[in-house]
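Running this now, will post back.
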Amino acid sequence: MNKLFFGNILPGTLLFSRYELVKCLSAADLGGVYLCRDLDHAGRKIALKILFTPDLKDSGSHELFKREIELALSIEHPNVVKGLEVIHDDDFTAYTMEYVEGGTLADYLHENTCLGLQGILSIMSQVAAGLKAIHKAGIIHRDLKPENILVNKDGRIKITDFGIAMMQCDSTAREQGHMVGTVNYLSPEYIRDGVFDERSDIYAFGVIAYELITGQLPFSGTSLIDSLTSRVRFDPVSPRQLRTDIPRALSDLAMKAMKRNPALRYQKVQDIVRHLEMVESLGKSLLEEQASQRSIREWVAITSKEQSTDTIAA
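Update: finished.
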């Protein structure tokens, strides 16, 4: 199986005797995600993710993988894509999810390169709330990035692809010495030692926060090795150095989430939630102060104009 296979299943194909394929949403060597109509539920639109998992069926990993999926499907939170059902056969594991009409956070950031404070805080708060629910269920996302964060037509944020595909990847890629996850969001401890826990997701959250604030990634390099080495050896430039109009507390939040030593990061997402609540309070005060300053400037301008008119009339 490969990306070519998963990317070329024809529309109209009936999958698992129930799901009519509408179109392929994404494809990779290990599986694909499809928009389908569920014929057992009046043709409602769902997203169907299929994974090629023959290597798991005769190993102890199969039950662990199955449990991971079932845990993921049990999460009920407005900022997490709702899982529906899981399907197994000899070669494939599949699960269905609510279909979110809209796009990804990556698409949104591509079209909106400089977000205002309220927009940044709204997105960060929703991502933090969803990630908190995922961790509470005992799942580490392992691939948190803008491409795995959906934005529906109403602007609601929903995290997807948490923990599940990576479980299957761990059973094969790790054995071959390959990295699991997306390079720009990998934590230093994973790059250095292959260690992954909740704080690794928090690091990825920090990178996303940095992007939301500055419109750019915290690290760049001329090669993959440069990029990986930079995050292990150096701290990024503070977001506030790139955007002086944001509260220092928001810049500090991103920097703390991206501490190279995981012991110095936020230890739980709840710590981020509390920090965000403080920043939101500061943000409201800042916006009120800015509005007040605008009112004063407008009053001074109007008064000066009136005085100038009176002088001319005299």
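The radius of gyration is 24 Å. More later if anyone needs it.
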